[in-house]
Model the fold of this input.
Amino acid sequence: MKRVLVGIVALGALAMGGGSALADHQTENEAVALYNKASSQVGREKVCRPEFGPATVTHDPPSQELLSTLGILRRPATPEDVLSHDQLKFFPFMKGVYVDYVRIAHTADGREYQIIPAQNARAFPAESHACLHRVHVHLRRLSKGKPERVRRRALHFYNQRARNDRRLAKNAPQEGVFVFSHGPNGTGGGGGGGGAGYIRTHGEFGSSGTRQRDQAVVSGLIPDGVATVTSFFSRRAPRAPGRRPMDYGKPIERTDRVQDNMISFELARDAEDAFPAKMIWRAADGSIVRVIRNPQ
Done:
């Protein structure tokens, strides 16, 4: 399962959830704060300011592979599906949005999601080597006097960003689909960018926190031919390397009906732990379409 970020974070900044123990939580918070401060300082420099333009659009249709994967893209558009011009500025990482194929999905639990397919879901500009180096210089200066574990963790975030930027520079354009929450006030958080092949074998999932502690909303984009998804959540949720797993006391198993190629449900866990250890996809007749173990 592809873990997607909730919301768009500019300037390479990081967002994080709660830690499994107070010491880990404090270390992670301090490291993230250092990294974000260094990135923000460099991002304010004119030469290193990211050049984001609004998303571009096309009236071409998506590939036949994508259309045959998601039935919601094949249904006729309705007035609620129209993507406003103002929304394009919020999607600078998309190029060639299939503007005639944007759709609003209505899930079985009553939520709405905006499905946005694009010719290129990898249109993130890579940072220049000089600007990345300046982030590193700022980060080392800000880290002086901090505990060793905090400095190491902050540098880990920087190294992760540098690796990602090197990959971005080599990426060819790739068709993909994004999913965003949608409501009376417009489009909310979301992410994605997976292509048809990945969606057919894994789906495209995300989670977001609610106002209640230990409560998340999970959403998933599911390919045609799947009527229900049974999700299994282990008692202990693994977390990032160096962080303790979160123990929730008991496992969770639930089955949700797919509607408009989407499922959505609330789960009594932190958003970062709301990804199943196993999923079973079933067709309308109850037969198993696919079993996905450790999908993340």
Q: What stands out?
A: Residues 227 and 258 are 5 Å apart (CA to CA). The first helix runs from residue 22 to 43. Confidence is low (pLDDT under 50) at residues 1-23.
